[in-house]
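Here is one chain, start to finish.
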Amino acid sequence: MAEMKEISPNAPVADKLLNWVDNRFPLSKLVKEHMSEYYAPKNFNFWYIFGSLAMLVLVIQIVTGIFLVMHYKPDAALAFGSVEYIMRDVPWGWLVRYMHSTGASAFFVVVYLHMFRGLIYGSYRKPRELVWIFGCAIFLCLMAEAFMGYLLPWGQMSYWGAQVIVNLFAAIPFVGPDLALLIRGDYVVGDATLNRFFSFHVIAVPLVLLGLVAAHIIALHEVGSNNPDGVEIKGPNAPKDAQGHPLDGVPFHPYYSVHDIYGVSLFLMVFSAIIFFAPEFGGYFLEYNNFIPADPLKTPAHIAPVWYFTPYYSMLRAITSEMMYALIACVLGAAIFSALKLKMPTVLKAVVLGAAVAITAMMLAIDAKFWGVLVMGGAVVILFFLPWLDNCEVKSIRYRPDWHKYMYGIFVINFVVLAYLGVQPPSAIGERVSQIGTLFYFGFFLLMPWWSRLGQTKPVPARVTFAAH
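Its structure:
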């Protein structure tokens, strides 16, 4: 048992109360360890505000979600009407609903930017592999949470979007039909589906999400934050002062807590402007078809998921029977190249070629729809392996060859183009562009062990580069 701390009888009431709490719960200790005594690199830039913004949006979503649940009816006959009731009759219900719907899109905006910062500065590299893995798990969890929440308004796009996505699971060989039935809870998307998604959206997934966020932060504070230079400020060779604090670091509080408050202020201004002046955001945040009650007998002309899913939806649509031949050529080409160019035993070469032939046979035997589902899921899963795909000598984009910047730039443009094509009706040109974009997306990661080693890196400074401002 820890020793009880004594405090002067003449101390202020607030100090006495804090001492009473500290003797029973390590409140001050936690604040010191994770705020005032947690040293972060002194050269953070604006890219480092998106983690705290993601935390803010998470809180907004939880709080607004609690108030929405008070009036929402998870019943196929009443769900759409209950949302209308929230919008029209509940005091400030329209504001809470718009905060929640805008918050969903804002969440993905800040998370995508947060992940991109990790990508360009090498925040997934040793010793932060687990921080990155927890972050990718949060992203996957967030996608599940958003998809299930998308069904709840029970509008036309909610219903038909869920119908399309859930039916994709039926394409999985052997277990697909049973898996789709398990997810729906019925033979069609209906009341059972709505109740399942509601329970997962409100209870199950948020609990997992909160646990992953806690693990993400704990892992980050264990190894320390990365910085734009990719220089370790807490390593055994890093310069420290007499107290053992890194010379290239500053306490997170008050320096970066104030920095984050500034970022939060800017974010809330934009967030509020969207809520009050453009909550639908041109049909991207709230689709116009979703203001029409779900009708199982009337299919919308064009069914597409919300914008933050559209890059992966484009990849799904890109996998046609014709595209399968291109994928087969890639698999066989990679196997032949490995057998000819890489130094490996003859037996291993035979295994690689045999595996390629077996995969080719599977790709020809199984419907392209299944491979589309596999590609869509693989586009997210491949992110988990990024720490082991990047073989560059340096972490940060600042000290990599200049052409690496163009490579990352093309990757971002490609991702945005895929997102745009995902909201557009299918077309011959769009199909070709999405197929090229899909090949580039996977090529970017799968070929990274090779291309990340190419080129001459710039010398990395021993200490972080910092200019006071």
